[in-house]
Specification:
Layout: H1 3-6, E1 12-16, H2 20-36, E2 40-44, H3 48-52
Parallel strand pairs: 1-2
Length: 62
Amino acid sequence: MSSADRGDVRTVVVGVDGSDTALGAVRWAAREAARRTSPLLLVYATSVATLYAGPASAVLVM
């Protein structure tokens, strides 16, 4: 019986930042989620300055 059949599904969550280390973490998390038959949630966060800053952002400090 899988964890989903028992009703106690736990999501595997992993943070992603674009680095090689994060890619390794995503691979591990995907294998772990498959092993547990659990959902996998990838989380990525960035600052507002990164999203909305234009060419003048070289002087923007947050």
